[in-house]
Amino acid sequence: MPNECDWVDAAEVRALLQQFRSVQQQRVHYYAKFQEGFQTYAAAAQNDREQDQAYSDLVSALTTAFQHCSEEVIGIETKLRDKLHRPDLAGLLRTVQEHEREKLRMTVVQQALKKAQARQQFTWMRSGNEDLSGIGTEEAHACAAHAHGVLPEPSRAEFEKAMAEATQDLQAAVNGINDSLEELRYVEQDLQDQADDHTG
């Protein structure tokens, strides 16, 4: 039969998982702000310096906010692993962190591609004729880099492939996050059932 220390540890685990849930809710809020800010930015006229600066400020603020979220989760992960001896739960949080990092990375790539599309940044978007003389890269990052003025423009086929890959990779990251959160929900429910049995 579990002793009192076990119940105390279980209660602390539940509290840490609730704290983690709170961090995830913050991330959802930040992504909503990110999407809203991007839509305003993408819809603005080209060379709209005010909107460019507003979006740049938003990205800077959200970068800091996402970093704080990551640091808080790392702290929770460390306590679960080192203090409460729950490497299984620490591993789930680590998996979420990795997927969150990929989600943010692919969100930025996808936004760069959507911006290029919204502003008809590539020649073939404006003329209706596909430019087949573009560079041979097929990577999403290459198209995104061009959207920031770094590389020659891709062809229509390269752009469409990059957009499809970015969308697929983003969805894979979201699915990975959701799968890990579902596992954590089962753990939380089990801990709650144990607590109810103990108090009952």
From TrEMBL:
InterPro entries in the cross-refs: REX1-B (IPR039491)
Pfam families hit by this protein: DNA_repr_REX1B
Phylogenetic classification of the source organism: Eukaryota, Viridiplantae, Chlorophyta, core chlorophytes, Trebouxiophyceae
Protein's organism: [Myrmecia] bisecta
Name recorded for this polypeptide: Uncharacterized protein
Top-level taxon of origin: Eukaryota
